[in-house]
What we know:
Elements: E1 9-13, H1 16-19, H2 32-35, H3 54-57, H4 61-75, E2 79-83, H5 86-89, H6 100-115, E3 119-125, H7 131-137, H8 144-160, E4 166-170, H9 180-184, H10 192-216, E5 221-227, E6 231-233, H11 238-260, H12 265-273, H13 282-287, E7 294-298, E8 303-305, E9 315-316, E10 321-322, H14 339-353, E11 357-361, H15 379-397, E12 402-408, E13 428-430, E14 442-444, H16 446-456
Helix pairs in contact: 4-6, 8-10, 14-15
Bound molecules: 6-O-phosphono-beta-D-glucopyranose.
Amino acid sequence: MKLFPESFLWGGAIAANQVEGAWREGGKGLSTSDVLPEGIFGGLDERGSEKEYLKDVAIDFYHRYPQDIALFAEMGFTCLRLSIAWSRIFPRGDEETPNEAGLAYYDAIFAELEKYNIQPVVTLSHYEMPWALVKEYGGWGDRQVITFFLRYARTVFQRYRHQVRLWLTFNEINMSLHAPLTGVGIPMESSLGEIYQAIHHQLVASSLTVKTCHEMIPGAKIGNMLLGGLQYPLSSKPADVMAAMQGNRHWLFFGDVQVRGEYPGYMQRYFRDNNIELHITDEDREALRHGVDFVSFSYYMSGCASAEPEKYLQERGNILNMIPNPHLSASEWGWQIDPQGLRVLLNLLWDRYQKPLFIVENGLGARDQLTADGQVNDDYRISYLNDHLQQVREALEDGVDIMGYTSWGPIDLVSASKGELSKRYGFIYVDRHDDGTGTLQRYRKKSFGWYQSVIASRGAVLK
Ligand code: BG6
């Protein structure tokens, strides 16, 4: 059995708004995540009242990070994917000068990681932007936001250039098509044209951020981040095959622009067919040319596409709606489990881009039981991760260049879609519940020791 390469990065992935809490501490401004306290698909609360939500404290990583990072180190992590909350650095988003307390907070985090030789992989924007940019500018619908984002990116590149060598621009950039308020700060009911215009501005910002990163931090690598929404044809009917190709292009389009630096031909047709006219300047076209160094993505599930989608019940999985695959089982949240799909996806992305790939999210959300003696026997999680990692190994054997793997939520955290804590992903159990009760104490689950042995053995213990 082949071992994973020595240089392969092993770790976990978290996002600021799902772990930190402390939403009003350290001079932080209000973000889109704070006003969607019950998740991406929950209601808006601009926080005029004193009502408290789970995310306000989350798992209190803001104060407990030394303990949590020590646990990650104990598992043998060589990297940790985390995000910087833009609204900690620029509370409104349009200031000239950053908030020093916000910058100092991440200094401390990176110093802690350095102690254990854990390499940070930093997402600049993971499902949150300063709320003032939404209220006063109309989010990414306004191209001034490109300037504000670049100011933020330059600020953190300058500050952390010695600590952070791996960066990601926008988390799951393709999700804006499904949740535009979280993705690009425009109303959920925006038209397709408005959504793509805002996305265009974000793509320009992403490309200019790649350029800026290369200029400011020689040797650093910066990638994009896609929600890997793999779709199979529901049947072998050619029309279904075409539907799956088109379904996949909805998300691959983002990668195509971010890797190749221009809009693909099939999108021109899509815009024509849907009467979408984007305002794209010559300067924008030039700005888009800076391709990423690597492609990162999340993968939880796959789904099916049909030429007659109205005939089938579509289910919302990880943000996308897809037709369930009759050959697969699903998690407690209805997300279909498809380890082999990960190999398919890795090969597909490698064939398409020939860029190193990084699996920066993969995991199983499940209800865990903490026993009276502080154990969590999460064999189902071990089995999910084992089967997916086996497929990563297969893809390596296929010749795919894979930089690393960070499982989603190495510690239980608040879910992005619904703002709940009962959906747990971690190797570490956090004693906190949907009703806000709990001690916040951390416990090692059975999967903790398992992941530790996977990393230590470079995959030899996988079954
Ligand atoms: C991805 C996001 O969509 O899926 C994460 O990047 C999110 O932020 C993860 O937490 C799992 O989704 P959920 O809704 O179960 O938290």
